[in-house]
Amino acid sequence: MRVAFTAVPDSHLPSVDELLSIAVNAVGGSERQGQVTMVRAVQQAIDADEHLAVQAGTGTGKSLAYLVPSIRHAMDSDKPVVVSTATIALQRQLVDRDLPRLAEALGKELPHEPTFAILKGRRNYLCRYKATAGWPEDDEQDQLFDPREVSATGRMVQRIQEWAEETETGDRDELVPGVSEQAWRQFSVSAQECLGANRCPSGAECFAELARQRAGEVDVVVTNHALLAIDAMGELPVLPEHKVVVVDEAHELVDRVTSVVTGELSELTVSLAVRRVGRLIEQSVADQLQEAGEDLKALLAAAPPGRVDELPQVLGLTLQLIRDTAWRCVTALGPRNADKDDPDKAGQRKAAFTALDEVHDTAVRMLDAYGHASEADRAEVVWLDGGTDRRPPALRVAPLTVSGMLRDKLFGERTVVLTSATLALGGTFDALAAQWGLSGPGEWQGIDVGSPFDHPRSGILYVAKHLPQPGRDGLPQQYLDEITELIEAAGGRTLGLFSSMRAAKAATEALRDRLDVPLLCQGDDSTMLLVKQFAEDEPTCLFGTLSLWQGVDVPGPSLRLVIIDRVPFPRPDDPLTSARQRHVAARGGNGFMAVAANHAALLLAQGAGRLLRSQHDKGVIAVLDPRLVTARYSGFLLNSLPPFWRTTDPAIPRAALKRLAAEPTEPADA
Ligand code: SF4
């Protein structure tokens, strides 16, 4: 898997080796072999115009390793490089810490000081026009719900109004604490709803336009996977022209792209379209769509949640009715560019067209999803999301794979570097490459630049082989006993990663009285505050589910033990993964391995990655589910994990944890 990369000389700019060395010195770090290998590999991929996947373990310093060649390329080609992340945390780290330090360090060595900007989707910026003129229909949606929600939304609206007076960026993420989607919607527009800067009275001072302009002038544009996907699909080019993209947190790419292209129909989406169009066309035409929406509401309320494999006749007729009545409304609205000299009316019409198009096109997609003779030919899956107290049931539609889309639209036009601490599943990149649509020989390269951590000496992977397999009825008593013994040995300092919120809560409830260390559970407070509390108080333990598997970065003695209750397969009733699994099987593949096992391997590797966050860290990963060593797929899962020292003997991790608990605390290094 390792490939030898050599530094590529260039006529007028310093080599990436030289630039990296200057950058590392400037930030007070030391040279790491994995980082040097990565910087050269990225440079070579850019030069050869070849896609590259790089697995780089925690502590490699991978952001510098891709930013240095990216900046160099931007200077050389006079075209920006786009860096895409999945999380806001990484986005912030890049623009608030890594890029400013790099720009300062490399400024003297390059023709100019490197420049950078962040660019998000239009919905993330305050729309000055809507904030002042408004098209005030969206807030009525709240009236459907609890009056307390309405007043909470009202308070948030007031806060946004005050913030709007002083913000310099209009970026929603700078509004702290955050606000609900309902409140924000009253101050933002989608790209489709925007009037266009030329026609909008606020166009000259529009935050989204200013961010876009700025992005067009810099060397590095930092964005997110969703905007990258929207841009790549090409209907609305939003990013400045570019040839090179770096996708960090690339293990999230497929899920984020799938979210972007998932469609939804519910009483809310239909009634929103009706409200937006209601004042602009004859009432009787809008009423027809409203009635179709009522039919859908009644059907969805009576149907069980889950995949809709066969289209029931009555649902098919309702979808046709929604499609046709939405289209009648579109026709009644007249030409799309009417009223272009009246911004108020133009804004209202654009908002109406956008909502109607979405309803119409989603109904068409759902009907088309059933137009195939066999399972193997299907392209999309439709399912009923049962809703919650705050959200009514909704019908959703999503593609069974996004590989073709990524292959044609993202990889077809650009050189893409994909990186993450977790890309090799079962020891190879093949699984993720197939999901990205990169399967052909010579299309891409994959390298694992390793990790600066000494996994076999720093961590133990303990699998509780003697325990029963996890069942459907909650955590067995033996699991609770095992967790208690491990936590007692570690003196707390435990991150409990559970496969469901229900299991995390059940374990917390059962163990709070049994343990004499503080035990926090996700949901007790905001996750950010809980992680902070966990990090600051050594004996404290934190139990939780999905977001903790990937989002906890606690170096030092507060985290010595990671407990994983079961191999994190997707739920068998998860509509999208179960449909994807069936689809692979219908095409002759191994659906379980291609979907469920890959999902579990990725999450297991992410969860195990919480343990070692700095060179001094030591500890134990305890997996209670014996299938990790007994099942036929166990080799694949184990090969997806870092090379910890392995054991199934419960005495060994307990003794190691006791020793660690007795050790004097060493400082954490980043
Ligand atoms: S140009 Fe679009 S986003 Fe900007 S203020 Fe006008 S309507 Fe809002």
TrEMBL record:
The keyword RNA-binding does not apply. Keywords: ATP-binding, Helicase, Hydrolase, Nucleotide-binding. GO terms for molecular function: DNA helicase activity; hydrolase activity. Pfam families: DEAD, Helicase_C_2. Its cofactor is [4Fe-4S] cluster. It catalyses: ATP + H2O = ADP + phosphate + H(+). It comes from the Bacteria. Residues 21-292 form the Helicase ATP-binding domain. Its EC number is 5.6.2.3. Belongs to the helicase family. DinG subfamily. This is DNA 5'-3' helicase. It comes from Nonomuraea bangladeshensis.
